[in-house]
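Continuing the batch. This is chain 6 of the set; chains 1 through 5 are on the previous pages. Same settings as before, nothing changed between runs. Recording input and output for traceability.
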Amino acid sequence: DRKKTVTALVLDRGFAASMPGDVDDIQSNYKNVQEALSGLADVTLEGDGIAAIAYDEGSQLLQDVTTMGSADNPFDPARLSIKNILVGQQFKPSGATSIGAGVSEGLRVLNAARPVYDCRALIILSYTKENHGPWLADVEAKINLPIYSVGLGLPQNISAAELQAISGNSG
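Output for chain 6:
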């Protein structure tokens, strides 16, 4: 039997930490987040799960763990629900940026899914600098699974060192 995996995508929707006047970059990076979520929904294996969490100065569970159906079915409700998260108003860029809040919620969701899935992973997609607590450093001691981070944009415009430290320390 293949081991089943659940992945929590922790998605940046912060606005305030971006460079002043850089609206084009914000919109471009927001589009990159949309494409990443849709792409993950496309390639996730049948029986594996995806959860989506957005963060700005707080966190919001956009989609609890959803088990993917057949990739051959273009109308699979689980895949469509993940892809449609970013279409609604609940994911418009706003507020400050607390990556720690998003990671904390992602860990909570993944730890709750432990009995159903053999493997767990958290992926952070960030395009702004962390400027609000809880900070990544505040949640580092709670990390009990692999974390991967993707910084969208130039290193000076994102929390590159913090993202590298948190993903480098987790597996």
